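Reviewers of the previous submission asked for a worked example of the structure-prediction workflow described in the proposal, so we include one complete record here. The input consisted solely of the amino acid sequence. No template or homolog information was supplied to the procedure at any stage.
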Amino acid sequence: VAENGAVWIRQDIRHKALYFGATALMILIPRDALVDTMHEALARPELDDFEYGCFMSGPSKTADIEQALVFGAHGPMSITVVLR
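From that input alone, the workflow returned the following structure tokens.
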């Protein structure tokens, strides 16, 4: 998704944990898979028939009651998307 850099990660990938346990992640996608907006991404036919999946767009952020901000708590610290 061009507007926010999100990439759809399908449920049927071989090693799911690698996508969430890695510090840095590089994802190769076909150039024709790129869409402009999340609305266009959600309208794609491959999202109609899934059991589980997620959009990944970069480091997560979380903070506790003491306002200590932590980046990358639930996934990689950086994601690089390469169009092929």
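Helices lie at 16-21, 38-42. We consider this example representative of the routine output the project will generate in years two and three.
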